[in-house]
Structure formats: structure tokens, C-alpha cells
Amino acid sequence: MNGLSTLLIVVGLFLLGGIYSFVKQEMPKSLIVLLSIGAGMCLLAGVMRLEVWN
């Protein structure tokens, strides 16, 4: 794992924690969906950058 893939995965996991927090606070669903899309994109980009796939 290089630094950028690690950073993307950590940011994605951080955003997943934010989603959990926003759901518990009953924030608007559109905000939760937007945060979910961002978390998914960060996690996907981090996993795709791993050296395992080469």
C-alpha cells in the first residue's frame, strides 16, 4: 500500500463514521446520500490504487 491509497481508504472510513453520526442526528437524507457517495468514491479509489491489482 502506498501513501495515497492509504489516505483515500482512511478518508472513506472517516466519512462512513460521519454517515453513521448524521443518521443518528436525523440530518436530511440528501446530505446523507451525498456523504455516502463521497465515502464510496474514496473507498473505491483507495482500493483500486492498491498494488494487489497489478
Q: What is the C-alpha radius of gyration, as a whole number of Å?
A: 13 Å
Our count of domains comes out at 1
Strand proportion, as a percent range, falls in under 5%
Q: Main β-sheet: number of strands, strand sense, barrel status?
A: none
**How many β-strand stretches?**
0
Helicity range: over 70%
| Low-pLDDT windows of residues | none
Order of helices and strands: HH
The rough form would be described as elongated
Protein name: Amidotransferase
Transmembrane segments: 31-50
Keywords: Membrane, Transmembrane, Transmembrane helix
Organism: Streptomyces physcomitrii
List the helices and strands and how they pair.
Blueprint: H1 3-24, H2 29-48
Describe this structure in words.
This protein is an all-alpha fold. The protein has one domain (3-53). It is 78% helix and 0% strand. The protein has 2 helices and no strands. It has helices at 3-24, 29-48. Helix 1 (3-24) runs antiparallel to helix 2. It is elongated. The relative contact order is 0.24.
Keywords:
single chain, 54 residues, mainly alpha, 2 helices
Give a brief outline of the structure.
The protein has helices spanning about 5-25, 30-50.
